[in-house]
Design goal:
Layout lengths: L3 E2 L12 H12 L11 E4 L4 H12 L11 E7 L8 E3 L4 E4 L2 E4 L2 H8 L4 E3 L14 H8 L3 E7 L4 H11 L5 E6 L4 E3 L1 H16 L14 H13 L2 E10 H4 L6 E11 L7 H21 L12 H4 L1 E10 L2 E7 L5 E2 H14 L15 E8 L3 E2 L5 H7 L6 E6 L2 E5 L10 H11 L12 E5 L1 E7 L20
Parallel strand pairs: 1-5, 2-9, 3-8, 3-9, 4-7
Antiparallel strand pairs: 2-12, 4-8, 5-6, 10-12, 11-12, 13-14, 13-15, 13-16, 16-21, 17-20, 18-19, 18-20
């Protein structure tokens, strides 16, 4: 007879009444911060629904369109009640909530249990909330699916990553990491700590995570390791705390929701693309008028536009390149990086003369968002050329103090990988036939979008205003 784990925190962390729970979860899933994201993984908070439900809704609302595709959810969260080494799974065949039962994927759990750091422990799940609070959201967002529940105790990031890789699966599998952020600080202090946690997540900084920043830092660290290795792109969806949702501001808990997409398929929605292009154009117009790069008040923009990113901005006039400048490290929020790189592309690319007002009618601008560059391994030049993927790869080549960078858009002018590499060496200031054992190459992909310059005064009203700052 199948064993069913009954809910432990229904009536405390969320409503025990099915109709009331259904209404609250549905309201959170209809979050204005959600959009259709082909997420492979989510990071979602696990407090009581009245506190963190709105932030969780932004994540789960963003994957509702994948309900027919996702048949399995791998859910990892921190153990709050019982101390143990490694990871634990329960013996139950299904987990119940007031909205129904969810079958456990025992085939997946068997693969996890084959690892020495994973064991069955029902005691670890007694009165534990970090997984259970997600189940009603998953039930209403995805419908039917099988669950792989894992509690993470004292486990190293590589041990968690090993479990995730065993269970990673394909498009049928969604990975969910359960964690809150800072705990029990004053409102302003919590905001700073949660910003630090967010930046660590956005930049895959496993070493920058700790229990002070996120109670689920151990499962989160494992995800970041796997996500970086497999070339996923994180996007911050919402970061708030209990002082913003259902509590006072004297002693708050922080919450954040984040989505991870495969970089090659990641797409910025139109509602953010257009403002990014508008503000890039405003940055250039500001430079023409004032002779400097405008400041931008980042907090005036939604979280996805504040996620730390690597960007390049390209400017073409009359169909010819007029400037291209970018960032290879994610040191700035997306919106600030675009503002700075747009200005630099228009006025500081030494290969071209600065843009003028008279150029703008024939000018278009494009923004490229880069994935994390990953080092390539090769035995020689022929091996490197054989690995290059035309129309997909951007490359960074470095030998000593010489470095060259090509965006994937360069494939429009150079079709052959060998020629692509030779021209990249030339851009780095190296002879076309140069080769040495010291050459290093990184590959990356980009998401690119662009537009013609709009007439003066036609840009969106929520970008850079005349004094060079964005409205709060």
């Amino acid at each position: 007879m199948a064993s069913i784990r009954q809910p432990a925190v229904a009536g405390t962390f969320y409503s025990a009444e099915a109709a009331e729970l259904e209404n609250m979860v549905t309201a959170h899933l209809d979050s204005p911060l959600a959009w259709d994201i082909d997420a492979k993984a989510l990071v979602v908070p696990h407090a009581g629904h009245v506190y963190s439900g709105a932030i969780a809704g932004a994540a789960y609302g963003s994957v509702r369109h994948m309900a027919e595709r996702i048949t399995r959810v791998v859910l990892l969260g921190p153990a709050h009640r019982v101390a143990f080494k490694g990871l634990a799974v329960p013996s139950a065949d299904a987990h119940a909530t007031p909205l129904g039962e969810i079958a456990v994927d025992w085939e997946g759990l068997a693969r996890a249990l084959a690892l020495p750091q994973v064991r069955i422990s029902d005691a670890a799940f007694e009165n534990e909330h970090s997984l259970e609070v997600h189940l009603p959201f998953l039930q209403r967002a995805l419908g039917e699916f099988a669950l792989v529940p894992l509690l993470v105790g004292d486990a190293k990031p590589d041990a968690v990553e090993q479990v995730l890789r065993k269970l990673w699966g394909g498009p049928e599998t969604l990975i969910v990491i359960s964690t809150d952020l800072s705990h029990f600080h004053a409102y302003d202090a919590a905001q700073k700590l949660d910003a630090n946690a967010t930046r660590a997540i956005e930049t895959f900084n496993v070493e920058g995570l700790s229990g002070d920043l996120a109670c689920g830092f151990r499962p989160l660290a494992g995800l970041l390791r796997a996500a970086r290795r497999l070339d996923l792109r994180p996007t911050t969806l919402d970061v708030r705390n209990s002082g913003d949702t259902a509590g006072d501001k004297s002693r708050v808990v922080g919450y954040g929701s984040y989505a991870f997409e495969y970089s090659g398929a990641a797409r910025t929605p139109g509602k953010y693309r257009e403002p990014l292009l508008d503000i890039a154009q405003q940055s250039i117009r500001h430079g023409i008028v004032n002779g400097n790069c405008p400041n931008v008040e980042v907090l005036g923009f939604p979280h996805p536009m504040r996620t730390h990113r690597r960007t390049f901005v390209s400017v073409h006039t009359g169909g010819r390149l007029r400037g291209c400048v970018g960032s290879l490290t994610p040191n700035n929020p997306l919106i600030a990086d675009v503002v700075q790189n747009a200005y630099r592309a228009a006025f500081e690319d030494k290969r071209f003369k600065p843009l003028s007002e008279g150029d703008l009618a024939e000018t278009d601008i494009s923004v490229s968002v880069l994935s994390t560059p990953r080092p390539m391994t090769f035995k020689g030049e022929a091996d490197l050329v054989a690995q290059i993927q035309p129309d997909t790869d951007g490359l960074i080549l470095q030998d000593g103090d010489k470095r060259g960078i090509f965006l994937p858009v360069v494939w429009e002018q150079i079709a052959a990988p060998g020629e692509f590499l030779r021209n990249l060496k030339r851009k780095a200031g190296l002879p076309l036939d140069h080769w040495s054992d010291g050459i290093k190459v990184w590959r990356y992909t980009t998401e690119s979008f662009g537009a013609k310059f709009k007439p003066a005064g036609a840009a969106a009203s929520d970008g850079v205003v005349p004094d060079g700052t964005a409205p709060a």
